[in-house]
Specification:
eight-stranded mixed sheet, Rossmann fold, 8 helices, alpha/beta
């Protein structure tokens, strides 16, 4: 389902504040059925989603990915001293891509999220243009939702290792640990701050206004989490996704063995072994909206 002659096209977009973003378009093969925007996870460059994007493009979807500011193709010359708001990834970066894609035609528009991507959707201006949204591995980030050993590893990162790395480098040099792309200092600090609460930024008194934006979402949403996802187990998903309480929300918990996989974790949703899961998700996304059984 991923032909070798499929040509991805790297492009640049400009966010509303003037920041230049690196995006990639995967043209549809055959008749264009609609457009799909992929909203990635924190610290995960867009190239990680290439196979999934090719898989969807081979079925007639024009697919778009992006690197948020500070990451991959959208990274400045140096992250030291780079200032930003973690929410800018949604309100400015993803918003710029969504606006660009929506303006390309009247075909159906869908979105897929991964972890942070599930947070980003509720923050998006213009999200009413999306017909359906599916997200993998989205959770509240609170250590209390995690298994005991993972809980202690995460607390060590927040309280000891992460601050030490940030003080030394001026940013979270995550690549040194093999955990993903390096992160701007502000992303680390805000992420850590919100992860102290069971419902993430919804429990932050300074972000109380965010609940209203999420309550405005009324489209079908499917939130898919694996039972072995230590960072976003189903309980963590439920705590966060409850903010989409006016959406037609479907919460799916999957067992890796039922999909022919020995392990999914937090990242396995987009690895090649997960193609059956990709197909199910694309079938759901592209199902006609008048279908009485979404």
């Amino acid at each position: 389902m991923s032909p070798s002659n499929q040509q991805a096209q790297a492009q640049q977009l400009t966010a509303a504040d003037g920041y230049r973003l690196g995006v990639v378009q995967y043209p549809s093969l055959g008749r264009l059925r609609g457009r799909l925007v992929i909203a990635g996870a924190t610290g995960v460059p867009q190239g990680f989603y290439k196979r999934f994007a090719q898989f969807a493009a081979a079925q007639g979807l024009e697919v778009w990915t992006l690197d948020y500011r500070g990451i991959g193709r959208s990274k400045p010359a140096s992250l030291r001293g780079f200032e930003m708001n973690y929410l800018d990834w949604a309100r400015l970066d993803l918003a710029a891509l969504l606006s660009h894609v929506a303006a390309r035609g009247d075909e159906p528009l869908w979105m897929v999220g991964h972890s942070y991507g599930g947070h980003a959707f509720g923050l998006l201006p213009g999200k009413e243009r999306v017909q359906r949204f599916a997200t993998f591995a989205t959770g509240a980030g609170w250590h209390g939702w995690m298994p005991p050993m993972e809980r202690w590893r995460v607390l060590f990162m927040w309280r000891v290792l992460g601050p030490l790395i940030v003080r030394t480098h001026g940013y979270l040099a995550w690549s040194l640990l093999g955990m993903g792309a390096d992160l701007p200092r502000d992303v680390f600090l805000q992420w850590r701050h919100w992860c102290q609460w069971p419902r993430y930024f919804f429990d932050d008194p300074e972000q109380a206004h965010l609940a209203q934006a999420f309550a405005q979402v009324d489209i079908p949403i499917r939130a898919i989490n694996a039972s072995d996802d230590k960072w976003a187990p189903p309980a963590s998903r439920d705590a966060f996704m409850s903010a989409y309480h006016n959406a037609a929300l479907e919460l799916l918990t999957i067992e890796p063995s039922e999909w022919g996989m020995s392990h999914i974790g937090h990242m396995g949703y987009f690895r090649p072994q997960a193609e059956p899961l990709w197909q199910q998700t694309l079938d759901w996304l592209t199902r006609p909206t008048e279908d009485p059984h979404p």
